């Protein structure tokens, strides 16, 4: 029952993340975002249905393939955001487009090999890529620091450029926190899988169930952590949840009566400047 709740909750979060970040991404970032979210959704649903219903070879392949796609695409997404922030001209060039196509085809090949391998090899692949996911964090941190530094260096530049840089910083910061959460669960997953690989302990339904729940938890909570830690999305939700407030400043006189005054142009400018200060 718990995994069903995680699957429904996570599926809604992934579609919400696609809707939220679609207009803020472009090109390869959009492709990775959609493919990553769909691979996580497919894995959650296929792995759950395999446990509940009858064993199906096609369903098993979908579960394995989508899982490996989700792990490898996380690495590529971090690299893609790093190139976008550090090397914007190269990111827009035809050479990067060709490089992205090659990497994407390579991911499809790796996922296919993982799907067709036996259970023992799959567990070894699982531990390997669980360790490799740690390298996501340095890439995300470098991208976040670079975005912040570029924003600080554009003082006096046009507002559109500063706004784009602030958005890049906020998005990257959100994915850093999501990456930390993923790394924690992936390390836990690897620790539990290593004894099974070297046959220190026998496979049991209880251990496999724990591994299954950890994977479902990771894939369902990742989009929500990214969304909740994103300042613009969080402020939007707070605005929707709160009652509609007046745009006027409320001042009370000595008699306790409310005096309404309109904010000055300076007040609006100060608020605008504060919203862009990171």
UniProtKB/TrEMBL annotation:
Residue ranges of the TM segments: 6-22, 95-117, 123-143, 175-198, 204-227
Protein name per its UniProtKB record: Uncharacterized protein
Alphabetically ordered keywords of this record: Membrane, Transmembrane, Transmembrane helix
